Amino acid sequence: MLGRARENGLLDFRLHNIRDYTDNKHRKTDDYPFGGGAGMVMMAQPIYDCMDAVTEGSRVHRILLTPRGRLLTPERAQQLSKLDRIVLLCGHYEGVDERVGAIIDEELSIGDYVLTGGELPAMVLVDCVARFVPGVLGSEESASDESHADGLLEYPQYTRPASFRGMDVPEILLNGHHANIEKWRREQALLKTKQMRPTLLGRFGKRTDR
Ligand code: 21W
User: What's the predicted TM-score (pTM) here?
Assistant: First the structure.
C-alpha cells in the first residue's frame, strides 16, 4: 500500500543512517552510561548532526520513538497525517542521551511491551499515519470507519461460500435489509468489544487506558 502511495506521489519516505554522521574514526554511535548500569546509550553528537542535515532549514515535526513516550492513538495518527513533513528518530537498544530531547517535538510509543529498537515502531507509525492520507486506501475505504475509529472493535465479516464446513453465514447478512444489517453489525461490534477490550467501552471520544 505504501509503495503504491509513493508511486502515486501521495507521500514519500527516506532513510538516514545515524552512523554516517559520527565524528570518530570507528563510526561509534553509542557509549557507556554515566553513573554506570547495563547497556549502551546512543550519543547526542551523531543524532544532532544527522537531524541538522536532514531538516536543514525546512519546517519539520520531530518525533522520537521511545517506550516512555505517549501511546500512539488513531486520533494522533490522524493529526500527524495532516503534517507536511515528519522526522522519526529511532533509538536502538537502551535508548538515547537525554540531551537529544532538546531537538525533539514529541515522544511516542506504540504499546506497553519492550522491543529492541524504535525501527519497527517507526514503520508502524508510518503505516498507521499513511492510512489517513487521502488516496492511500482504496476509493470507498476510509480510515475513519475502520476498527478502533469509533472506539469499537470490528464486526464479524464473511464471504462466499454461505456454508463452509458446517459453519453458516448469519441469515441476516444473506437477506436482511440494509438497516437491519447495520444494526446487527453495531451490536456485534459492541459484543466483541465487551469480550475482548472492555476498557474501550464507556468512552466515545476519550480513552482512559492510553
Ligand atoms: C527498549 C529502548 C528499552 C529503551 C533508562 C534506564 C520505541 C519502543 C521503542 C528500548 C529501553 C516503542 C533504561 C513500544 C518499544 C524502543 C527499545 C529502556 C533501559 N533506560 N514502543 N534503563 N516498545 N525500544 N532502556 O520498545 O526504542 S517506540
Answer: 0.93
Query: Ligand 1 within 6 A of 118 CB?
Result: yes
- Residue 124, C-alpha cell as written in the block: 508502524
129: its cell numbers: 499515519
Atom nearest to 121 CA in ligand 1: 28
Q: What's the DSSP call for residue 153?
A: P
CA 79 to ligand 1 center in whole angstroms: 24
**Nearest residue to 147 (alpha-carbon basis) of 118, 176, 189:** 189
CA distance linking residue 107 with residue 115, whole number of Å:
16
CA-closest residue to ligand 1 atom 3? 94
Separation of CA 85 and ligand 1 centre (Å):
24
Contact 38, 94 (CB under 8 A): yes
User: pLDDT tens digits for the chain (210 residues)?
Assistant: 999 999 999 999 999 999 999 999 999 999 999 999 999 999 999 999 999 999 998 899 999 999 999 999 999 999 999 999 999 999 987 899 999 999 999 999 999 999 999 999 999 999 999 999 999 998 767 776 666 667 899 999 999 999 999 999 999 999 989 999 999 999 999 999 999 999 999 765 555 556
